[in-house]
Amino acid sequence: MQLTGKNYIAGATSAEGAETFFSVDPRSKQTAEPAFHNATNAEVDRAVEAAVPAFQEMRNYSSSRIADFLDEVAAQIEGIGGILLDTADRETGLGLPRLTGERARTTGQFRAFAALLRDGAYLRPIINSEEPGQPSIRQMQFPVGPVAIFAASNFPFAFAVAGGDTASALAAGCPVVVKAHPGHPATSELFARAFGAAVERQGFPAGTFSMLQGNGHDVGQWLVAHEGIEAVGFTGSLRGGRAIYDAAARRPRPIPVYAEMGSVNPVVITQGALASRADDIADGLVGSITMGTGQFCTNPGFILLQESAASQDFIAAVTAKMQAAPAGVLLNEAIAVGLESAVEQTKANPEISILTGGEAVAESDYFCFSNTVMQTTASAIRADDRLQVEHFGPVTLFVVCDDADDLRATVDALEGNLTSTIHAEAEELDDIGDLLHQLREKAGRVIWNGFPTGVAVVQAMQHGGPYPATTAPGTTSVGMNAIYRFMRPIAFQNVPDPLLPDPLKDGNPLGIMRLVDGVNTVEAL
After folding, report:
1. What angle in degrees, to the nearest 10, is found between the helix axes of 96-119 and 63-80?
2. Confidence of residue 461 (pLDDT cuts 50, 70, 90)
3. What is the DSSP letter of 518?
4. CA 27 to CA 431: how far, in whole Å?
5. What is the CATH number of the domain that holds 385?
6. Which of 77, 82, 402, 472 could form a disulfide with 406 if both were Cys (CB 3.0 to 4.6 A apart)?
7. Which domain holds residue 439?
């Protein structure tokens, strides 16, 4: 399957930009042909201008038709076969076992959204019947319009061109224009071909999907500023997400940005848990920190303990296990440079102790950073919020607190996170409840006696959290509720039945679940 290095715009390839970049193998730091062309402003315009009329058509499609399209996308992705896995492995160094699982997750997301659409209840139809002195009001969800998606670096399948943001936006009935990540441009081009085939086979408008390449900031800024874009989905760094958020806010007509920007994911370990199962927790913690070379937004980067001999023994055990674990491959040079900069910033604080690692592995043939354990005090964390920076790699920071009050004061000082975790024993439940609720206020997902890496794609999942973890803590980027980022409620007051959308008509022709006068029912009125 010959790669072109071109952008994919509404069913056609385009390479108008003079600036190019190359795919890089992180295991060897070697580049590979072809050259990929940065999209021009004109190409961005064409992609969005094709998405606008596509939305005018798609907004009238039935849920079942969109569901068929999502199933087709999944089938087309699977149809690429082993070349997709091999290409992504060459560009990311993640390994075929990991990528095989991620492909299954990616196609599974599309099929899960298809099932959601066929059920119909996702439209959230609500009917309040007319009563004396009160009009009839009926509400349901509608797609917002063309969506800009920014692919992430660390999940080349599940959070990239064909990731959850794209799947949920298309499921909502919104065309997408995807800004591919420069860390895996060849993989992105293969996905674009799968979407193009699905669009053609299902008879969808060509502007349903476009994919733009670029290794700088211009393409993303042009895309967000385009008046035809109605919402943005982003997964990446705080710096990148904030730049996109600010650009969207500067528009004459601002639009929502759903940015997931990373997290330190605090983990609290009680003395009771250490007394009961310190070795097991240490093994699980090291496995979580080093999984994927630490390049997960849910990497446990902050470990809070009360001062004790048991805590110091635990820190020593984790440090030894981190030293013994092999140093992994980082995804690309940008991540390697960013990680080194973040660790250097943290090391500059005189209250930080480096227990192991703390530097890039300079002699390595691949992008590599040493497995790193640092330690500091609770008072240092409260005095310097720069210590709460995400270290996107195999790095964690132990925060040793004087006592329970000191620990709770430190939790109060934490910024927003995607997750928070407690390891505790059953006999500590009476004492731990207040702390759990403190942590609840700092994160979108609270974990009990587990580890935050691994995000299940299920209905109840909440992958989001207070700023700076995300720009929209009331939403999730994983799970079926991700669809509501790209929909909005519209209420109809006293509108005649023939003019209402089918989900709100008296007869309920779709036979879907509706909330009628406070009661969930599929019955007609």
Report:
1. 170
2. very high
3. T
4. 48
5. 3.40.309.10
6. 402
7. 266-448
Helix (H, G, I), strand (E, B) or coil at 433: helix
Tell me, yes or no, whether 77 lies in a domain: no
Confidence of residue 297 (pLDDT cuts 50, 70, 90): very high
Q: Per-residue pLDDT tens for 20-65? A: 999 999 999 999 999 999 999 999 999 999 999 999 999 999 999 9
Q: Structural domain tally of the chain?
A: 1
- pTM for the structure as a whole: 0.96
Residue 363 has what pLDDT?
78
Q: Which tokens sit at 280?
A: 């097991």
Domain assignment present for 338 = yes
**Rounded distance between C-alpha atoms, residue 215 and residue 151, angstroms:** 12
d(CA 248, CA 226): 9
Q: Which two tokens stand for residue 200?
A: 């053609």
- Residue 297 neighbours by CB under 8 Å, 6+ apart: 154, 235, 260, 262, 263, 418
Q: Is residue 303 part of a domain?
A: yes
- The string over 97-122, giving b where at least 16 C-beta atoms fall within 10 Å of a residue's C-beta and e elsewhere, is ebbeebbebbbebbbbbbebbeebeb
Residue 260 catalytic? yes
User: Residue 415 catalytic?
Assistant: no
Which residue out of 91, 230, 297, 401 is catalytically annotated?
297
Average pLDDT over residues 8-18: 98
Residue 332: closest CA among 297, 368, 303: 368
Q: Is residue 389 part of a domain?
A: yes
The catalytically annotated residue of 43, 189, 230, 260 is 260
Exposure of 48 in the CB half-sphere (CA atoms within 13 A): 24
